[in-house]
Design a protein that fits this description.
By secondary structure, the protein is mainly α. Helices cover about 60% and strands about 5% of the residues. Strands 1-2 form a two-stranded antiparallel ribbon. β1 and β2 form a beta hairpin.
C-alpha cells in the first residue's frame, strides 16, 4: 500500500491544527480561571532566543498552508493580523484549516518530483516535492506545534499527550 502526497499532508495538518484549536481553548479556560493577562502567555518564550508562543502558532500555520499551496501550484494566502489573543490565534488556525481543505488530492498527488524553491531573504533553497514535504515542511510544522504545546504546558495549562495527538 502506498501513501499519497495528499494523504501525507492535508489530512495530517487538518488533524493537528484541530488539536491545536482544542489546546488553545484549554489555554483560554486556564487564562480565564486564573485571571491571567493573556499577552503574558502569548508572548512567553521557553528561552530568550526562542520565538514567543503566538509566533510559534503563526509559523505552524504558515508551514501548513505554504507547503500545501506550493505543492498544489497555487498562491499562498497571506493572513494579516496582530495576533495577541488566544482568540486571534484560533482564528488564524481556523483560516489555515479552511484554506488547506480547499485543496484537492488531484492538486497535490503526483508532486513528489515537483521543483520547489523557497526564499529567505536572498537565499534560495531548492527541493523536490517529497523532500520538501517530508524533510522540511512536516518537521517544521510539528516543531512549532510542539513548542506551542510546551510553552502552554510549562505555564500550567492542563494539557497532555492526548490533547496533542487527538484522534488521528
Amino acid at each position: 500500500m502506498t501513501i499519497s502526497m495528499y494523504q501525507a499532508s492535508v489530512p495530517r495538518f487538518v488533524n493537528i491544527l484541530g488539536n491545536l484549536m482544542n489546546i488553545l481553548d484549554k489555554a483560554q479556560a486556564h487564562v480565564d480561571a486564573k485571571k491571567l493577562d493573556v499577552e503574558t502567555l502569548t508572548r512567553y518564550r521557553l528561552f530568550p532566543d526562542m520565538l514567543p508562543m503566538a509566533t510559534q502558532v503563526l509559523i505552524a500555520c504558515d508551514a501548513a498552508k505554504g507547503v500545501v499551496a506550493r505543492l498544489a501550484g497555487i498562491e499562498i494566502p497571506v493572513f494579516e493580523g496582530d495576533d495577541k489573543t488566544l482568540a486571534d490565534l484560533k482564528a488564524r488556525v481556523a483560516k489555515t484549516i479552511a484554506f488547506i481543505q480547499t485543496v484537492s488530492p488531484a492538486q497535490i498527488d503526483g508532486t513528489e518530483e515537483k521543483e520547489i524553491i523557497t526564499k529567505r531573504g536572498e537565499k534560495e533553497t531548492h527541493y523536490k516535492g517529497m523532500q520538501f514535504l517530508l524533510g522540511h515542511a512536516v518537521p517544521n510544522f510539528y516543531f512549532h506545534v510542539t513548542t506551542t504545546y510546551n510553552i502552554l504546558r510549562h505555564n500550567g495549562v492542563e494539557i497532555g499527550k492526548r490533547d496533542y495527538l487527538g484522534n488521528p
